[in-house]
Amino acid sequence: MTADGLRILLTGATGQVGGTVLGELLDAGHRVICLARGRDGRSAELRVRDTLARIGRDPRLPFEVVEGELVDGGISLTPADRARLVGVDRIVHSAARVAFEVEGHNEPFETNIGGTLAMLELARSLGHVPFTHVSTAYVCGRFVGPVAERFHERPDFHNPYEASKWEAERQVRLAGEAGLPVRIARPSIIVGGAGDGRALHFQGFYLVCRAVSLLCQLADHDPRSGYDLTVDGLDVPGALDAPINLVTADYVAAAVARIGTLGPEVRGIYHLTHPSPPTLGDLTAVLSGYYRLYLPCIETRRPRPRPAPRGEPRIDPARLRRRQRVLARANQSFWRLTAAVKPYFSDTPVFDTTAARALLDPYGIHPAPVDSATLLRVLEYAESVGFGRDLPQV
Ligand SMILES: NC(=O)c1ccc[n+]([C@@H]2O[C@H](COP(=O)([O-])OP(=O)(O)OC[C@H]3O[C@@H](n4cnc5c(N)ncnc54)[C@H](OP(=O)(O)O)[C@@H]3O)[C@@H](O)[C@H]2O)c1
Question: How far is residue 159's CA from residue 136's CA, in Å, rounded to a whole number?
């Protein structure tokens, strides 16, 4: 490390994790080279600057960019850009395709497995550079724990994303066994920052908030339906007391940046998960209060009958039938919009964090509480930027 800090190659800097990690690394005085790609007429560099603006940092901060893409079997880099990577001290690999279904070009496997293999090869070719891989706590698949901070035998998976991330971890472990200094960070479900609710991307947890938001707007726009969300509500598939392992973006960024800069002697798997996460009941209470709607949790395996609304005036049968039809349609839409994340309401693992605590506590890096006030801030921020539609550009 020089007086200017470490030289760190970072992938995924236009994403939720990579963007916030970039901010942390720059704050700590490191020199960062982002491997990123241009899109929609915006160069890779401009897109990374947009990201800095979106996380509330100065977009003019100095960093380097190499324009490239992870593709199966390699990285699309010009020879000149590859030469610029000689001498990097660390690699933090955060890029991934977060897609719960198989898409064109064999995603998420191509980026998550092929891309990780290419990055591992790059780390070896640059002189066995210490390599930090951003994985997910949900490589445990359907196993509900306690989930240890070690490599899992292949579990049953909920979706191709988990399978691709598990295989990527396996490749990282093999590279580690062959001598590359590797460490793996496994965040759970990431929400916006603890202090300001800021987020860059609105997938995962946000799908539920977005679906509720959308259906509230539709219900408000169709008063003739007789469908009243404050009474009829939407059924959330899960148990009230199910823990939903949410962690804030600032915690994940600080933890990944710290792990990413540590020396080659640090080799392990670290759960960036919450020791006392909110429950589905906490989450639905915040959503109900914010959107003013009835949001009962129904256990997926033992659905409860909907309680009859109290004190409701008699309505004529034709109107009631119409209302029930609209209600069924709204619930179908809700379940369809949130199908990808539904399993995470019913399979709710408990994660061991002993290794992460031992590594990160001495640096004062702890998960921030994810309480009702935090969830409300996260929701307010998401709404304020139209769930990503109105994020600033430089
Ligand atoms: N967000 C979560 O809740 C969460 C939870 C646990 C673990 N993780 C893990 O955290 C890491 C980062 O996820 P994220 O939430 O930051 O995802 P994200 O917001 O969707 O960002 C993904 C990043 O990867 C880049 N990328 C994707 N495919 C690429 C390719 N073929 N070549 C080059 N770059 C590519 C994207 O670039 P473009 O902008 O150009 O597409 C973007 O910068 C992933 O490994 C993910 O598995 C995320």
Answer: 13
Cβ atoms of residues 132 and 183 within 8 Å: yes
Alpha helices in the chain, H assignment, sequence order: 16-27, 44-54, 79-84, 109, 116-125, 160-177, 205-221, 249-261, 280-291, 317-337, 343-346, 354-360, 372-384
- Beta-carbon count within 10 A of 238 CB: 24
- Helix, strand and coil content of the chain, in percent to the nearest 5, comes to 40, 15, 45
**Rg, the chain, Cα only:** 22
pLDDT by residue (tens digit) across 243-291? 999 999 999 999 999 999 999 999 999 999 999 999 998 998 999 889 8
Cβ atoms within 10 Å, residue 167: 17
Query: Strands 236-237 and 297-298: what pairing?
Result: parallel
Ligand 1, atom nearest to 95 Cα: 24
Indicate whether residue 186 lines ligand 1 (CB < 6 A).
no
Which CATH architecture group holds 7-196+243-277+346-388? 3-Layer(aba) Sandwich (3.40)
Domain boundaries, the chain: 7-196+243-277+346-388, 205-241+280-343
165 lines ligand 1 (CB under 6 A): yes
Tens digit of each residue's pLDDT (9 = 90 or more) over 91-104: 999 999 998 888 88
- Contact 90 CB / ligand 1 (< 6 Å): no
- Regarding the beta carbon of 272 and ligand 1, being less than 6 Å apart is answered no
Q: What is the pLDDT of residues 128-180, one digit of tens each?
A: 999 999 999 999 999 988 999 999 999 999 999 999 999 999 999 999 999 99
User: For ligand 1, is residue 15 a contact (CB within 6 Å)?
Assistant: yes
Residue nearest ligand 1's atom 7 by CA: 136
